[in-house]
Amino acid sequence: MALDHQDYSDLSALEAGLLDAVGGKELFEEKLRSFFRSAIDEVIDTARTGRFFFSDLEKTEKTYLGTKFEILLRDWLQVPKGVVLDLLIGDLEVDVKSTTGGGSGWMIPPEAFEQFCILLRVNESSAKCAVGLARARRPYLRDRPNRDAKTQFSAAGTKNIWWLASEFEYTPNFWTLIDDELRQRIISSGKGTKRLATLFENCLGLPVSRIQVAAIAAQDDYMKRIRRNGGARDILAPKGIAILYSETDRELMHQLGLKFGYREFLSHRALDDGQAELLRKVGHID
């Protein structure tokens, strides 16, 4: 967006406020990797429904995801709900709009016309997302609203979106990255601890959301099924495989050059003697 654009000062200030709220660009991107993954996994709800994929969701559930994203974003930013719009950021009310179909399918309601919006786009097929900021000025919008008086950004209007992230790779649904045979082997490999060990041994380097770990363990005390003293770590540590968790091993994972999101697990086998010594020193491998 050009410096002389009429929205430049407002959107640059909004971006600065958002990044400051989440601790800076690095932490923003780290959390964004898991933001959509955790939301979608919660709605898929593998533990109770036996479903694994976004395509398994009902139409109403896909519609509900927009509300889910809004709720999680409000919690992430630690801001209240606005009086009219979804968020109150400082003194500014901001609407949150999302699309899971790709493209620019955000539906803008009349109350958001001329107001600021956070635009979320997620594509489960490619595991890529985008986060944009825009002021929904009438000239940016199509002039043919639907029956609810909602409309969309025109093709020309989308050029006025300020992108915080575009075509950003978020954590994919790991079930889409393994074949049916391995999936069945994981599910049928035994009780919670054994299932998690089978998962992490065969899915090295694939981030797994805490929600999916709970689903695979299928037990209330699922974190115990990962820890030492009888958990999956005891099974994999002698094999040189570490199970790392972003909330307790964040700095270590950065040292190892791993890419991960908030509240995600990832298994890793040392790539060299230096990494092996590092993992051994903190007790992740034997």
Descriptive tags:
alpha+beta; 3-stranded antiparallel β-sheet; 10 helices; 5-stranded mixed β-sheet; 286 residues
Description:
- The protein has 286 residues and is of the alpha+beta class.
- Helices cover 37% and strands 17% of the residues.
- It has helices at 8-22, 25-44, 46-49, 59-77, 180-187, 192-202, 210-217, 232-236, 250-255, 273-281; strands at 87-89, 92-99, 116-123, 128-135, 162-169, 208-209, 241-245, 264-269.
- The strands form 2 sheets. The protein has a 5-stranded mixed β-sheet with strand order 1-2-3-4-5. It has a 3-stranded antiparallel β-sheet with strand order 6-8-7.
- The longest helix has 20 residues, at 25-44.
Number of strands: 8
**Helix content percent band:** 25-40%
Runs in which pLDDT lies below 50 for 5 or more consecutive residues are: none
Assembly category: single chain
What does the radius of gyration come to?
Answer: 21 Å
- Helix-strand string: HHHHEEEEEHHEHHEHEH
Side-by-side strand order of the widest sheet: 1-2-3-4-5
Describe the main β-sheet briefly.
5 strands, mixed
Distance between the termini: 53 Å
Strand content: 15-25%
Mean pLDDT score: 92
Which class do the helix and strand fractions yield? alpha+beta
Number of H/I helices? 10
Shape: elongated
